[in-house]
Amino acid sequence: MSVKIEVIEGGTPHNTILAAGLVAAIVGIYLTYVNVIMNTTAFAVFGGLGAVAALVWGSHAVKRLASYGIGTGVPSMGMIAFGSGVIGMLLATKFGLAAPIAAIIIGAILGAIFGGISYYILKMHIPVMIQSMTELAIVGALTLMGFCAMVTGRFTFDILAKGTTAGIFGAVPDYSMSLIGGSIITVTFILGAIAIQHPFNACLGPSWKQDRMLWLAVECGFLSMIGLAVISFAFLGFAGVVLNLVVAGVGWFYAFAQYIMLSKRDAAAWLDMKPIVEPEGGH
Amino acid sequence: MIEMSLIIIALIAILIGGVLVGFGVHFVPVGGAPAAMGQAPGIATGVAMLAAGAGLAGLFGGALASPLGIAVALAAGGAGGGLMMAITCTMVNVIYVYGMGIPAASGKVLKDPITGDSQKEYKSQGTEGHGLPFISYVGGVIGGIFGGLGGTLIYYELLQVYTAALPAMLGADATAITAVAVSLAGIFAIGIFLVNSVLAAYNITGTIEGPHDPKFKRFPRAIVASAIASLVCGIVAILIVVV
């Protein structure tokens, strides 16, 4: 156990990706607050972009932990990232404007506890265990918050739990029409959990290349965004929905084209393999 | 505000539920990639997928039955999880036997502890066994029942807390917030369920044959881990209506 089967060679160092993902996610989520200031919904899309940034960081964190040969499969890491992330994120939404910061703090506490449990109680003696679990929980919480901000345009609990429906005398509050009451949070959960674990699960192996995996992470993030942009029809005004759909669609197409290009590059590298030489005196 | 007794009961129930989930994972024959190639016994996927498939089936079953009271809800949850695992195990063996053409044989024991069938003769050389022996099937069903019970217990107690606290918090009457309470309890139960099942998966390092596997003896430390993790998750889940 805990034998490192792959090392990260070259490419961008993990800490750089961590810092960039964290900052971009925070900035993206906070930009959705412009919706409140300017009374619009057009800035909702930045929540999704922040979530994509968090997913890129998360996929690299998954790679860093999973390359130790953890034995449980890569998808389990996506599940624990979002399992702990959703718990932290929902509590964080109660902190109003400080919600994204609270999501980082609560996610970090939860992740550190689960990492500590894995390291000290379950005897998974992997050097990056506690750090990676902490990162994954933060990524889970930030991604969910970003996606929720993209769907509803807000990131606070009162808005996420309260929807409106058309009544005889105008709009009336209807809690079952909200993001949480309508269980959209569950769809968001699984869209994020798949997007975080798929890149490394698809790209792992001796031909693993960092840029190819990260572009796949971007692609998965935008693909989830397309689904959520469709859901945002129920919550946002016209401008917000159109921006969501266009940005998600264009972003997905560009990232997918990049990923296919890099796949072809790396596939060509394998075509140069020499045929296996028969041993002397073999059959 | 909600009464302290309700919170304490809910925390204890979440702790028990989480421990049941973590303990239940040890019964489920998780085979992983080697099982998919017929080189190890068990269901050919990881714990995360089995937990999401079988355990959540129980949780949803229990959630649907929750208006009928805790006893019916728990029974429905356990039955749902066990039934889902029974169907999964049956179909897994149908595919192994008739699709891949391999018999069920355990690599960890010489004789099946329940039926007494000899295993060694059926085990191919170079493998750790293959297919799903009877003991693994029984283990899978027991694991499904534990998972469904645990998930439902977490959901049911969280639902009680949210139904009591949300009307005052959101300033609406009890019927209006039912959807929010159900959804919150559901997503928290899913989160706690997945955290516990993945931590238990770390304990068995990904694969296990069932209750006869030597790795099964590691379960005490998974119980400690699940208890701590569930308590922490439970506190966070209840804080949302207290903060």
Describe the structure.
The complex is a heterodimer of chains A (283) and B (243). Helices cover 68% and strands 4% of the residues of chain A. Chain A has a two-stranded antiparallel sheet. In chain A, a hairpin with a 2-residue loop joins strand 1 and strand 2. Chain A is mainly alpha-helical. In chain A, helix 1 (14-31) packs antiparallel against helix 3, helix 4 packs across helix 6 and helix 5 (99-121) runs antiparallel to helix 6. Chain A has one domain. Chain B is elongated. Chain B is mainly α and 243 residues long. The model of chain B has no long low-confidence stretch (mean pLDDT 89). Helices cover 67% and strands 2% of the residues of chain B. Chain B has helices at 4-25, 32-36, 47-65, 70-99, 134-170, 178-203, 219-242, and strands at 105-106, 129-130. In chain B, helix 1 (4-25) packs antiparallel against helix 7, helix 3 packs across helix 5 (134-170) and helix 5 (134-170) packs antiparallel against helix 6 (178-203). Chain B starts with a helix and ends with a helix. Chain B is built from seven helices and two strands, in the order H-H-H-H-E-E-H-H-H. Chains A and B meet through helix 4, helix 5, helix 7 and helix 8 of A and helix 3, helix 6 and helix 7 of B.
Secondary structure blueprint with pairings:
The complex is a heterodimer of chains A (283) and B (243).
Chain A: H1 14-31, H2 34-38, H3 45-66, H4 74-92, H5 99-121, H6 129-152, H7 157-161, E1 163-167, E2 170-174, H8 184-203, H9 210-231, H10 238-271
Antiparallel strand pairs in A: 1-2
Helix pairs in contact in A: 1-3, 1-6, 3-6, 3-8, 3-9, 4-5, 4-6, 4-8, 5-6, 6-8, 8-9, 9-10
Chain B: H1 4-25, H2 32-36, H3 47-65, H4 70-99, E1 105-106, E2 129-130, H5 134-170, H6 178-203, H7 219-242
Antiparallel strand pairs in B: 1-2
Helix pairs in contact in B: 1-5, 1-6, 1-7, 3-4, 3-5, 3-6, 4-5, 5-6, 5-7, 6-7
